[in-house]
Amino acid sequence: MRVVIQENYEKMCLWAAHYIAGKIKASKKTPFVLGLPTGSSPIGVYRELARMNQAGELSFANVVTFNMDEYIGLPHEHDQSYWYFMHDNFFNHLVDMKPENINILNGMAEDPEKECARYEEKIASYGGIDLFMGGIGVDGHIAFNEPFTSLSSRTGVRTLTTDTRIVNSRFFGNDPEAVPSQAVSVGVGTVMDSKEVLILINGHNKARALAATVEGGVSQKWTCSALQMHNAAIIACDEAACGELTVDAYKYFLDIERKERL
Ligand code: GLP
Questions:
Q1: In angstroms, what is the span from residue 62 Cα to ligand 1's centroid?
Q2: Is the pTM of this model over 0.90?
């Protein structure tokens, strides 16, 4: 696993955006299949990717996207649906992204399990995901795969923990009860099948999760720790998130990735 430590959030996002842009540009394959997250972590990455796109430095014309997850019961137009988030923070700012190339799980599907099976099939129809960008929750959840979700799970319905509903209540008027209790989400196994995974981890509140991801054992208690078994996983993080790493690990990654430091 690679861990690229940047000084602060802005530099982490800049580094990640340019890494993704480099992969899209270098790809000989049409289309390039990109997995995407929601949350506050990727916002700076989306801003820089959109800037590059508007400046004519990066095209999304041959990019197909698959989002990680969506709340069950929120329609597209709800300002906390992940569909709304993605359009508001990213897709609406791109000049050449084709709407038909955007894939987001439908949280209003009559049969959510069928919707999840459709999603897996669609990913497979493109030959899998080339690069999955993600974030993690403070409890280490990847997409909506809460602690103790199987590390080989596939796209399916997930029940949110009370902790996650409390954390996400900041977007719902600070009312945990207003946060949907269920979501549809890609599985840990779905993320693990991607050719590459890039996870953003920033801020002091993610320090425990970063340590568990990098230095803990592989365990379903910290679903992000599955990434230790991926042969092309990168964590992009900021200094603030490194507070729980051992000094040895911190020094090792700073040394080995010194050329990546912005
Ligand atoms: C939500 C999403 C995750 C995301 C996590 C972290 O629970 N389902 O995909 O990674 O929040 O969000 P943030 O980046 O805002 O900390």
A1: 27
A2: yes
Would you call 146 a catalytic residue per the annotation?
yes
Q: Edge-to-edge strands of the sheet including 131-135?
A: 2-6, 233-238, 196-201, 131-135, 32-36, 63-67, 102-103
Secondary structure class of 108 (helix, strand, coil): coil
Structural domain total, the chain: 1
Would you call 78 a catalytic residue per the annotation? no
Three-state SS letters, 138-194 = CCCCECCECCCCCCCCCCEEEECCHHHHHHHHHHCCCCHHHCCCEEEECCHHHHHCC
Map tokens 């693990």 to a residue.
192
Spot the catalytic one: 48, 70, 130, 141.
141
Q: What is the CATH number of the domain that holds 94?
A: 3.40.50.1360
Average of per-residue pLDDT across 22-37: 93
Q: Which residues line ligand 1 (CB under 6 A)?
A: 37-41, 68-69, 135-137, 143-144, 164, 168
Identified catalytic residue from 70, 139, 193, 238 = 139
CA distance 234 to 256: 13
| Closest among 7, 50, 43 to 236, alpha carbons compared | 7
Residue recorded with tokens 């430091």: 261
Catalytic residue among 48, 70, 130, 146: 146
Span 192-248, pLDDT tens digits: 999 999 999 999 999 999 999 999 999 999 999 999 999 999 999 999 999 999 999
Range of the domain at 167: 2-261
pLDDT tens, position by position, 121-166:
999 999 999 999 999 999 999 999 999 999 999 999 999 999 999 9
Tokens for 38? 């929601």
